[in-house]
Each structure stands twice: as C-alpha cells, then as structure tokens.
Amino acid sequence: MIELYTDGAASGNPGPGGYGVILRSGTHYKELSAGFRLTTNNRMELLAVIVGLNALKSPGQEITVFSDSKYVIDSVEKKWVFGWVKIGFKGKKNKDLWTRFLNVYKLHHVKFVWIKGHNNHPENERCDELAVAASKNRSALGIDTEFEMEKSKSSLL
C-alpha cells in the first residue's frame, strides 16, 4: 500500500502557486514540490496528485491519496470528471490537467481520503509547507503554460 499526501497553494488565485507531495510506503519516503509563477490553487491541488501518481515506478499499485481538496476528491469520487470527459470538458476548467490525471489514474488502483486542511495533520501540514515554499521560491518558478495561454486568450476577448 502506498500513501500519497498532497496539497496545493496559490497566492492571489491566480498568482504564484506550488504543490507539495509526500509518498510513503513502508520505510520508503519521498517529498516532491514545485512552484509556478501564475496558476490557481485548484490547479496545484490537482497537479500534486498527478505528480505523485507519475512518480510511481510500476503500474497496478494500490494507492490511497490523502488530500484536503474537495475539488479533486469530489470530482473523482462523485464521478463528475467522467461526465466531463463525455462532454469534452465543455465549460470546465483545467481540462489539460484532468486529461493528464485520467491517463495516470487508470494505471493504478486509487482511492481518495479527504482530510481537513490546517488541522494539525502532520503530512498535510508538511505538504502545505512544501507547496507554499515552492510558490515563494521566485528563482525557481516554472510556467504553467496551459493556464497562462488560456488566461491570455480570455483577456483578448
């Protein structure tokens, strides 16, 4: 069993953002994080799950994702995202990330557990620290290309 803890953060929403991930299985432990110059909290919450699942070395793993994101958990557990696929994500945000998520999600046996954020849950607090620190590391902020392209398109209209 692999435990995947995730969190995302954005200052300004949209604004600088980041994600934090903890992967744990037995004695194995790994932390991952990255920041972006312009993004949203929901994108970072979802990207954290994608990055965590992508970090797994072999398919068919039993994974429990712990997240404080109702957006991510409800979208999957209530099967909304599968309906969004049927309508081509028309009117839905983050199609690029949801598509990436579905491609890696189908490789594993994933269940989600919601945890209350900022409630002294050690792994959630650590993921939050990682996400916030990554979002503030101005010298290492990446570009959330898809988000920035969509944002610039909408500002032209």
What topology does this entry show?
Blueprint (H helix, E strand, L loop, with lengths): L1 E9 L4 E11 L2 E12 L1 H14 L7 E6 L2 H8 L2 H7 L8 H11 L3 E6 L7 H15 L8 H12 L1
Parallel strand pairs: 1-4, 4-5
Antiparallel strand pairs: 1-2, 2-3
Helix pairs in contact: 1-4
Structural write-up:
This protein has a single domain, classed as Nucleotidyltransferase, domain 5 (2-Layer Sandwich), CATH 3.30.420.10. It is about 45% helix and about 30% strand. It is built from 6 helices and 5 strands, in the order βββαβαααβαα. It has a 5-stranded mixed sheet. Strand 1 and strand 2 form a beta hairpin.
CATH topology: Nucleotidyltransferase, domain 5
Order of helices and strands: EEEHEHHHEHH
- How does the overall form come out from the CA principal axes? globular
Structural class: alpha/beta
CATH class label: Alpha Beta
Describe the strand arrangement of the main beta sheet, using strand numbers.
3-2-1-4-5
Judging by the overall fold, what is the CATH architecture?
2-Layer Sandwich
The biggest beta sheet reads: 5 strands, mixed
Give me the Rg, rounded: 15 Å
Mean pLDDT: 95
Helix content: 40-55%
